[in-house]
Design a protein that fits this description.
The complex is a heterodimer of chains A (308) and B (471). With 308 residues, chain A is an all-alpha fold. In chain A, 72% of the residues lie in helices and 0% in strands. Chain B folds into two domains: 166 residues, 3-Layer(aba) Sandwich (D-Maltodextrin-Binding Protein, domain 2); 218 residues, D-Maltodextrin-Binding Protein, domain 2. In chain B, 43% of the residues lie in helices and 12% in strands. Chain B is globular and about 65 Å long. The chains are: A mainly alpha (308), B alpha+beta (471). Chains A and B meet through helix 3, helix 9, helix 14 and helix 15 of A and helix 1, helix 2, helix 4, helix 12 and helix 17 of B.
Chain lengths: 308, 471
């Protein structure tokens, strides 16, 4: 599960000339060496183990695609993946639009103002996943929420159980994830914008471009690769959603199913039914989805293409 | 992709020592991660037992020497029992771990037992669960955790548990737990409000429903029960002999279309609609705010015996001198009267225990000796399952000033009425009820319209747990 992310963080250059690539690789090795053991122990080894489990039966014998077929026909499989895809779609959409939008806005501001806002945006991200969900459990309960008038009047929600109605969940989880994750990305995008040469901006301004044109026609295309990078990483984390639905399941005393997301289904299969092989099959499904998305984004945006 | 070819390569050579070592490292990493994850789900705290030198009287565990150290897992409600045992037994070192004893706790427990089974150590000696069905999976593969109690607790003591209670603790003919309390459903009545409004206490479901209609028009805002708990189907459907979990040999009968189910649903639907039977959980802050407190709005409430002080006094903070219990409601003039059950928490001893005599002594003491003053501030929270303690507890409860009238005759009567056609199964049915029915009721659907979906969702859950289902 961590492996998809790990792989996305350490992709290989796709079409770099071979000899030069090798030289570069040797030079880069000391830099990645401290990370390598962790990548192997926590990224690659569990992934290999998951693949091993997914294609074998409970007795360790070869099972082919049996585990995949069985989990695919499980009555919880389809809803779980539907939830996850809807959630990831909503979340990635808002993430791209708002993170890029806010970063561009910030970059146009005076330095002091923008650093204040950067700090403000980053703050919620300092709360770790589980803690932020707990905060949101209170935010969503009209009885105790500081935003209860919004809940009551805008969304017509007077009870906690209405706030977490099944249809709202993908949006609720997307909101939680955005709130905790977006700040970090805004800072990253701001950093990316800082790499744009001032000469370019000045040249554009002399040519008569306003702030909006500069933002959309100059800055945006130049940070395209960073956006792609954010989408790849976020897609992997999005499809691996676990802690938010798990905590809401517990807090709502079971109103939200404990197999809402695919990762939860894998967890239940492993520990309630002791079916580690099926759980591994779902983990591999998630890995494949993450990989396919990453490949699509990489090839479409030319993430690793080099201009030189 | 590079990743796939590398992985496929690894699989082909999975017998190579390096691959096995890598796998082992992976297992450890995975286990560590999952343990960390599941920790966040349960509040876990450990307390060491005292070791002062007062003499501790030991109870009648059969055989073995009592002493040394044991680890017990209890819910927060049973924490005082464990602490009292520590106080009474200075020669025993007890490590107490509290966990979420409800349905969430069951999942935590399953995760933990699987991990302990995989690592071959770490099991606690004793577990208390609020879930009456937990012993069933604990006694089955792959968990295989529960030790048979025969021989650990003497037969003369075991015979003092009521037969239905012993039956719920018996899996494949072997008794593997003892229940802490009985959780029979009775009708809780707010005597003060009933007198004030001039209503007579109903004895049948029909009278109760008619009163619900009357309350809706005469005293809107007051309620005659609730249906938003994860266990509400145990109160209304179990009580009315709805066959949703009936083991017949190897077949499990799940029939939500049975008249026993549909007639109850049509009786409840008007009450859900008029607001006298809200789809809220009694443990939700919303419920306490709307219906609890000094100016409470609970006129009646069908519910288990442990509602007595746990719910009305400690959770809803209803004043003393209001609530009492009356007999379970009858369906028209049908006999015998049957009622539901919510809980019946069992004590389970680990078959892996290295100090099983002490573990058995702990369970024996907790169920057959422990009985703090029932009229005092902290009586045993539920109706004790062990007969002689139940008798003492009832005598005390009859005098407890919190109740408006003596609730014990009704509780005693209800204990014998629990319908035995509801079998205890390995999978939890509460989440199924919550996420198929309660969410629908909150959205304004009728119970009658939700019953078919509930039946098929239960059947799916049963099949996923390897039951053969007939519908």
């Amino acid at each position: 599960m961590t492996s998809a992310r790990a792989e996305a963080t350490h992709p290989r250059g796709l079409r770099a000339p071979l000899a030069r690539g090798r030289r570069r690789g040797a030079r880069g090795l000391p830099f990645i060496l401290p990370y390598l053991p962790f990548l192997i122990v926590f990224g690659i080894a569990p992934m290999i183990y998951a693949l091993d489990l997914a294609f074998t039966g409970a007795n360790g014998g070869w099972a082919g695609f049996h585990n995949f077929a069985r989990t695919f026909t499980d009555y919880r499989f389809r809803p779980a993946f539907q939830h996850i895809l809807l959630y990831t779609g909503v979340w990635l959409g808002t993430l791209v639009v708002f993170v890029v939008g806010l970063a561009l806005l910030l970059h146009g501001r005076a330095n002091r103002v923008s650093s204040g806002f950067r700090f403000l945006f980053y703050m919620p991200g300092a709360l770790a996943g589980a803690a932020s969900v707990l905060v949101w459990l209170f935010m969503l309960d009209p009885a105790v929420s500081p935003g209860s008038f919004l809940l009551r009047h805008l969304f017509n929600v007077t009870l906690f159980v209405q706030a977490i109605a099944p249809g709202n969940l993908p949006f609720v989880f997307a909101m939680i994830a955005f709130w905790t994750g977006a700040g970090g990305w805004i800072v990253v995008m701001y950093g990316a914008l800082n790499t744009i040469s001032r000469d370019l901006e000045e040249a554009a301004r002399i040519d008569g471009a306003g702030p909006l044109t500069i933002a959309l026609r100059l800055k945006l295309p130049l940070i395209r690769k960073w956006i792609a990078y954010m989408v790849i990483l976020s897609f992997a984390t999005g499809t691996q959603l676990f802690i938010e639905p798990q905590l809401v399941n517990e807090a709502s005393l079971g109103l939200v199913p404990d197999t809402w997301s695919s990762n939860q289904l894998a967890y239940q299969l492993a520990f309630r039914y002791a079916d580690f092989n099926s759980a591994a099959a779902i983990a591999v499904d998630l890995l494949l989805i993450g990989l396919v998305a990453a490949v699509l984004i990489v090839t479409r945006t030319g993430l690793f293409r080099r201009e030189d | 992709m590079a990743l796939i070819s590398r992985a496929a390569h690894a699989r082909r050579r999975s017998r190579a020592p390096w691959a096995r070592a890598a796998s082992a490292v992976g297992v450890i990493a995975l286990a560590a991660t999952l343990a960390a994850c599941s920790n966040s789900g349960s509040s876990s705290s450990a307390a060491a037992g005292g070791s002062s030198a007062a003499a501790g009287g030991s109870s009648a565990a059969a055989g073995g020497k009592v002493g040394g150290s044991i680890t017990v897992w209890v819910d927060s409600v049973r924490l005082p029992v464990a602490q009292a045992y520590v106080k009474a037994h200075p020669n025993v070192h007890v490590k107490i771990v509290t966990f979420d004893g409800d349905g969430n706790g069951a999942t935590t427990m399953q995760t933990k037992i699987q991990l302990w089974n995989r690592t071959g150590n770490g099991w606690p000696d004793v577990i208390f669960s609020e879930q009456v069905n937990d012993p069933v999976w604990m006694a089955s593969k792959p968990f295989d955790f529960a030790a048979p109690v025969k021989g650990l607790i003497s037969d003369s003591l075991l015979s003092q548990w009521p037969a239905p209670s012993t039956a719920q603790c018996t899996v494949n003919g072997v008794q593997i737990c003892v229940q802490d309390n009985l959780a029979q459903v009775a009708l809780w009545v707010n005597k003060k409000l009933m007198d004030k409004f001039g209503y007579t206490v109903p004895t049948t479901w029909q009278q109760w429903a008619a009163l619900g209609q009357k309350v809706a028009t005469e005293h809107p805002g007051y309620i005659v029960g609730n249906i938003g708990d994860s266990f509400s189907h145990w109160i209304y459907l179990w009580g009315n002999q709805c066959p949703l979990e009936q083991l017949k040999g190897s077949q499990l009968l799940i029939n939500a279309a049975d008249t026993h189910c549909t007639e109850m649903a049509s009786l409840l639907d008007p009450l859900i609609k008029n607001g006298t039977l809200p789809p809220l959980s009694v443990f939700s802050p919303d419920f306490a705010k709307k219906y609890g407190g000094a100016d409470d709005k609970v006129l009646m409430m069908p519910g288990p015996s442990w509602y007595a002080t746990s719910l009305f006094k400690d959770t809803l903070h209803m004043p003393a001198g209001e609530i009492t219990a009356t007999n379970p409601l009858q369906w028209n003039s049908d006999t015998p009267i049957t009622t539901g059950q919510v809980g019946g928490g069992p004590w389970i001893i680990s078959k892996h225990s290295a100090n099983i005599a002490t573990a058995a002594d702990f369970v024996t003491w907790a169920t057959t000796v422990y009985n703090p003053d029932p009229t005092g501030a902290s009586p045993r929270p539920g109706y004790p399952a062990y007969g002689p303690v139940a008798a003492q507890w009832l005598t005390g409860m009859a005098k407890n000033p919190y109740f408006a009238a003596d609730p014990t005759p009704a509780l005693k009567a209800a204990a014998a009425d629990i319908w035995t056609g509801w079998s205890i199964v390995t999978y939890p049915d509460q989440p199924v009820w919550s996420n198929t029915v309660v969410t629908g009721l909150v959205a304004g659907k009728s119970l009658t319209s939700l019953l078919p979906a509930f039946g098929s969702a239960l059947a799916q859950a049963a099949q996923a747990a390897n039951y053969q289902v007939t519908q």
